Fold this sequence. Notes:
Helix content: 10-25%
Number of helices: 4
Amino acid sequence: MEIFKKHIIMTSTYFECKVSYEKIMEDGKQKKVTEPYLVDALSFTEAEARIIEELTPFISGEFVIKDIKRAKLSEIFFNENGDRFYKIKVYFITLDEKSGAEKKTAAQMLTQASNLKEAIEVLEKGMKGTLADYEIASVTETALMDIFPYDAEDDKNTDKTADANNPSVRKFFQSLPEGCKTEITVSGKKIIVDKTGRDTVVTPSGEG
C-alpha cells in the first residue's frame, strides 16, 4: 500500500542538525559517526532543544551537536514507505505577459522514498493540482537520517511532568544559558546538557 503525504513548509522553518555519537554498526563494532537530521523549529536554540529531545531516547551514550543551519527548502513530500530522502531541484516556468519570454524560478524540494525513481513519483504525486508548469532539473540522494516536523498534538497529549516534551519544560530547555552544565529529564531519562564548550554535549546523568 502506497502512503503519500504532502507537508508544505512555506510557513515553517527547518534546520539541519549534525549530531556526532558512537554508533553500533551491523558487525557489532562501535564507530563514531556524524549524522544530519532536519527539525521544524522557530530558531536555532529551539532546533537544538528539539534535536536533543528527539534523539535522547534512541542514543544510549554521549552525543554532540556539531552544527545547526537553516535548510533552504520549499516543500517536503513524505512517503511513509520510504527509507531515504532525496533533494530535488525544480524549475517553475512562467511567461512574461509583455515580452512572452520564458522565466524559470528554482525551488528545492525534499522527498522521502526508497529509490530515485520513487522519489520522482512522490514529487509528481505531491505536485498534482499545481497550476504552474515545472521541470525537474536534478535529483540527489541526501545523507539525512530522519525529519522531525512540529506536531501540535504532542503538546496537547503530554503529561505535566518534568520532561522536555512538556511545553513549559521545553521553554526552559531552550533557554539554557551558554557556558554551563544543566541536568534535565527527557523522556524519563536524566541527561546533562553541557554548553561550556564550542559544541553542545549531551551525556546521560552519571556518566558525565
